[in-house]
Amino acid sequence: MSNQNYVTLQPSGDKIPLVGYGTARIPANETEEVVYNAIKAGNRLIDGALLYSNEPEVGRAVRKAIADGIVKREELFIVGKLWNSFHEKEHVKPIFQQTLDNYSLEYIDLYLIHFPMATEFVDPKEGLNFLNAKKEFNLVKAPLQDTWRELEDLVDAGLIRNIGISNFNVQSTLDLLTYARIPPSVLEIEHHPYLQQRRLVNWAQSQGIQVIAYASFGNAVFEKFPPGTEHLENLMKHPVIVSIAKKHKADVGQVLLAWAVNYDVIVIPKTVKIERMKTNLDIHNIKLDDQDLKSIAKLEANARFNDFFENTYGFDFPVFA
């Protein structure tokens, strides 16, 4: 585990905080105030995406925090993501420009391919989804190599400092590494004690790819559950996590975040409560011991909550198989 509160990205050498703030599932009309408060509370990593439909509001919060002297632009680490329907090479740069305009910034610190699947183009004005306007899930033949070259061009132009991937497995990442002129700096994945993905995390880190965890609180952040996962206890109430929290005089959320950070995995928890924003950041003094780590390791259930089943997303696609 790092002694610092950040890890270093390759090949840029940029430092990314180990604890940041996620902007998924925040209503647009609440986003500006919430993200401004998150920055004011001390967050310097802001994880966003076009899919979240609140990029302009995130941008306003960032610019307001800078204007108010709370933070300098170079102290912030801003993340955006390329949605599935824009993988075809002619769409990559225009849709990235939309994100840049939404944020109204001169550059983005990290831009990720959101999922390793290319779906047919849908005008972003018609809304973003996994499905097209006819509620169909249609893949298109858009080679990832072409998509990646467009992103590398944007790095060359100084508009993106780091590029990376999200929801990729080892096979798709390995293929990318065979032709990437600029290798991926980051892999963002679902990661929590019910889905620890230890081998994937270790391998990515061995390749110089840092890992960002989303859904660090597991099933506590989802409303619908794929078949076979409904029986799992809410991770925020699990006796093992509760017991460890009491032992360290911490709350359960802090323990779940500290567990990930122990393995140099970056976390991006979301909360609208200012006090929780502060406690989520205040985890670096929580030192889990070997017994804590062994107890949490036993919670592995290979339970992926962000999976594409008919009952959760309206279509069945084994992207993680």
UniProtKB/TrEMBL annotation:
Transmembrane segments: none annotated. It comes from the Eukaryota. PROSITE patterns: ALDOKETO_REDUCTASE_2, ALDOKETO_REDUCTASE_3. Residues 22-299 form the NADP-dependent oxidoreductase domain. The keyword Ligase does not apply. The keyword Oxidoreductase applies. PANTHER family: ALDO/KETO REDUCTASE. This is NADP-dependent oxidoreductase domain-containing protein. It comes from Parasitella parasitica. The lineage of its organism: Eukaryota, Fungi, Fungi incertae sedis, Mucoromycota, Mucoromycotina. The gene is PARPA_04105.1 scaffold 11792.
